[in-house]
Amino acid sequence: MSIWRNLLVLITIFAGLCIPAEAQIVIPEHSDKEIADSIRKELDSRPYFSLYKDTYFVGGTVLGGTPTKHNSDVKFQISFQQRLTKSVLPWNSYLYLFYTQKALWNVFERSLPFHDLNFNPGIGLSRFIIMKGQLVGKATVMIEHESNGRDGIHSRSWNKISLAGEAYISPNLMAHAKFWIPIVDGEYNRDILKYSGISQAGFQAISNDQKWVLDMTLVKRKGWNLNFNTIVQLGYRINHNSNQFIMLQYYNGYGETLLDYNQYHSRIRFGLLIRPRFFSDF
Asked: What distance in Å separates the CA atoms of residue 117 and residue 109, rounded to the nearest whole number?
């Protein structure tokens, strides 16, 4: 019964994260400096604790093969951020703590074992970019660690110095990119860059009525050839006043979790997505 108690705790955390984190900022006409100051004041007034990457709980199976209890599973992710400062640091930046946890859960196997748990804490500076009186993007530099908390031959870990950027092209479209300098300290994942990549880029699109959200991320694996891990998510908002979605998620490539970083996966999953009212981080 301990698994179900843990699941209840996770659902409770999900519910606590269902507070819309961000919304469009409407500022009356003033000078560019006055508008920029007003936008920063609005950003400063927002909750210190908020969603970071998408939080979801989805289940599914293999594509291009016969579904079995060994290739069908549940995947979930919890992700949040804690803003530690207001815009008082140089360049009006903010200091954040980030945390993301991802798991693959073999719910169709006997005793419902967890296949892998990945822990991804980080700390970094984010600066919102304001041009001509409009919020047009965000840049973040961070130090992050990722590991699966296991020992022996199943241990996986690495560290990154990452630079991430977002461009708000319109109220309905955002493009994002992220590059990292890897520091691979795991004894059993020295070749992880060949599979989990060296950079990523993608977009997120939201329908005019805010009901549909589509995002795609391509993770570039090491090498000069066009080798990518592909993640596509399509979500439909359950209620206009909530940030909960029914989601279809597609993953194709390597590096879905650390334990199996060098194994190819093609999976389709369906479930619940919780995301900000504004754009997500990636």
From this structure: 17
Buried b (16+ CB within 10 A) or exposed e, 136-147: ebbbbebebebb
**Mean pLDDT computed over every residue of the chain:** 89
- Here the tokens at position 202 are 């993608």
Rounded Cα gap, residues 110 and 115, in angstroms: 12
Look at 21-25, 155-159, 230-234 and tell me which has the smallest mean pLDDT.
21-25
Which CA distances in Å does 143 have to 49, 163, 180, 237?
19, 9, 9, 33
| Alpha helices in 122-214, H assignment, sequence order | 193-196
Cβ contact 124:140 at 8 Å = yes
Q: What is the pTM of this model?
A: 0.86
| Alpha-carbon gap, residue 109 to 126, rounded angstroms | 42
Grade residue 39 by pLDDT with cuts at 50, 70 and 90: confident
> Which of left, alpha, beta for 12 (phi over 0: left; psi -120 to 50: alpha)?
alpha
Long-range contacts of 244-249 (CB under 8 A, 24+ apart): 244/18, 244/272, 244/273, 244/274, 245/213, 245/272, 245/273, 245/274, 245/275, 246/270, 246/271, 246/272, 246/273, 247/56, 247/58, 247/271, 247/272, 247/273, 249/56, 249/58, 249/60, 249/75
Answer for the pair 144, 98: CB distance below 8 angstroms, yes or no: yes
Question: Of 64, 77, 71, 30, nearest to 281 (Cα)?
Answer: 77
Total count of residues recorded for the chain? 282
Predicted confidence (pLDDT) per residue in 245-271, tens digit:
999 999 999 999 999 999 999 999 999
Question: What is the chain's Cα-based Rg?
Answer: 19
